[in-house]
Amino acid sequence: MTTWLVGAYTPDMDGAARGIETLSSHPDGSLGPAGLAAPATSPSFVLAHAAAGHTETVYAVSEATGELVAYARGAGNELVATATVSSGGEAPCHIGVYGDVVIVANYVSGTLGVISRDPIELVQVLEAEGTGPHEAQDGPHAHSTVQLANGDIVSADLGADRLHVHTLHNSSLTRTRSVELRAGTGPRDIRQLASNHVLVLGELSNELLLLDASLQVLATTQIPGARPGDHAAGISVRGDFVYVTLRGSNRIGVLRVDGDELASVADVSSEGDGPRHHVIDGDVLHVANQLSSTVASFRIDEAGIPRIIAKPTPVFSPTYLERF
Prior knowledge:
By secondary structure, this protein is mainly beta. It has strands spanning 3-8, 19-25, 31-39, 46-49, 57-62, 67-73, 79-86, 92-98, 101-106, 112-117, 120-126, 142-147, 153-157, 162-169, 172-180, 187-192, 198-202, 207-211, 217-222, 231-238, 241-247, 251-258, 261-269, 275-281, 284-289, 294-300, 306-308, 313-314, 318-323.
């Protein structure tokens, strides 16, 4: 049985959650409630990390207060807060652990906060600049980071339509270059595939981009099911298939990577309102529908199409799902 941590919005950000909740997998692949792990303030992104020889630590943003909170495992599914530190900006929305540091992307301020893991303290803040044509691109908006196979750390700047490339040395992040994307793309999430190709999700253009290892764009494809006004959210990958959710039309777009090309496959309902983060567990896709306060679970068939398993599970204002 798999246990999941649920990041969510609490009343301070117009949500209804109590903090970090837990869900557990049923035999059919659907999920059920498993209790509150920890009271928290809008823990919209949660990451469980275990380094060799160390006890697992769970990190969560506090999006409304601009902080990162570290937790240790308690009894059962309980989490015990051990440290709280500034995230290095406003509205932290993504956490990445890279060696001895935690890097937090701060959406509103557009900054990256570099936090040492032991002791937990803010050691560096990287600022950015730039705007885009969309109303949501009034300034830099850092949204996520990823470490590539070559060791570079790349961040997505949704507000400036850029991917920033960094090196990390002695807990210090150095920006070495920036890759400009088409105006209005709004890069949100980044994934590197086993082939070393890189996927970038355009939240505002509702496109999926396929890049080579040097971050040159190879292909760009509209997400199946996208409608004007949609905001794309999240990338899940299973084999050659890629899954992207669309907030607005509330769809799951299915695409396939074919060499240096992207192909549209299908789109299905997210079975809820405001599909945000999603994650794959074997052949099951779990989708956090933030606005309907549900998590929907789908079995992925041989053609790569998600099929709903059971009635979606009630959970208040879910924004992120993390295996625990």
